[in-house]
Amino acid sequence: MLEVKQLNVSYGHVKAIHDVSFHVKNGEIFSLIGANGAGKSTLLLAISGVLSPQGGEILYNNHPVQEKNVRYMVNQGVTLVPEGRQIFYDMKVKENLMLGAYRHKKKINILEELEKVYELFPVLKTMESRIAGTLSGGEQQMVAIGRGLMSNPTLLLLDEPSLGLAPLVIKEIFLQLEKLRKTGVTIILVEQNAKAALKISDRAAVLVRGKIEKIDLAENLFQNQNLHEMYVGTAVNK
Ligand SMILES: Nc1ncnc2c1ncn2[C@@H]1O[C@H](COP(=O)(O)OP(=O)(O)O)[C@@H](O)[C@H]1O
Ligand SMILES: [Mg+2]
Q1: Which of 8, 15, 17, 41 to mutate to test the pocket of ligand 1 (most atoms within 8 A of CB)?
Q2: 14-24, strands of its sheet edge to edge
């Protein structure tokens, strides 16, 4: 479904991604794990059309998309839920969710999409008129994911959804991601919280200073304690 080939992404003279290659299969949960500054967000920004790479290719369903913008990618079914949620804290939950549908050029049935989001996160339905800023961190993350889902994506890119959340809340959100995958949505999950991410992933890549250090089945990486200590270190919740 997605193939990234020899990708290079820079911020001015700072090279953030060096010759990164990997592929993601239809229907899988693929995790990108790595320490702060490894280049995880940059990679998602390039795939979602926010940043243009300086070299390499991104193939989505066999078509090169590395020169495309966010609107194009959303219309192709690729949606990013950015780091730090970036929801509108002074707007209502439902208004935030509705914003997720607006980029989509096809006339998707917005109310149908909203019902799907409420099915996945029932708590949001009970809070649809609440101001988003008054919600807990976990609920705000559900709003951010829900807003991404409103564009009816086939590939969802999630940038550190567990950041700042309590372990129990992370568990609950990740459980919903597994449910989401069962409905046919492919997921790329970016996490510093390697343990939680690997538990629900099929495969994963470890990113170290802008390069892929290892790609393997998630269960193999999960059991590789050396890898945890060397590259993910303190980010692993014991
Ligand atoms: N807007 C930016 N301008 C310059 N350098 C940046 C910018 N964003 C990220 N970087 C640098 O790119 C590298 C990768 O950052 P990032 O993709 O945010 O890593 P991660 O998401 O894994 O924490 C880091 O060295 C970071 O300092
Ligand atoms: Mg990041």
Answers
A1: 41
A2: 14-24, 2-11, 55-60, 63-64
State the CATH class of domain 2-235: alpha beta
Q: Measured between alpha carbons, how far is residue 133 from residues 102, 114, 144, 203 in Å?
A: 21, 20, 12, 35
Q: 16 C-alpha to center of ligand 1: Å?
A: 6
pLDDT tens digits, the chain, 238 residues: what are they?
A: 999 999 999 999 999 999 999 999 999 999 999 999 999 999 999 999 999 999 999 999 999 999 999 999 999 999 999 999 899 999 999 999 999 987 665 666 888 899 999 999 999 999 999 999 999 999 999 999 999 999 999 999 999 999 999 999 999 999 999 999 999 999 999 998 898 999 999 999 999 999 999 999 999 998 886 666 656 544 444 3
Residue 31 CB less than 6 A away from ligand 1: no
Put the strands of the sheet holding 78-81 in their side by side order: 78-81, 155-159, 186-191, 29-33, 203-208, 211-217
**Which ligand 1 atom sits nearest the alpha carbon of residue 35?**
22
Closest ligand to 84 CA? 2
pTM above 0.90, yes or no: yes
For ligand 1, atom 7, the nearest C-alpha belongs to 11
Q: Would you kindly state where each structural domain of the chain is located, as residue ranges?
A: 2-235
Neighbours of 156 (CB within 10 A): 23
Nearest Cα neighbor of 1 from 156, 201, 132, 189 is 156
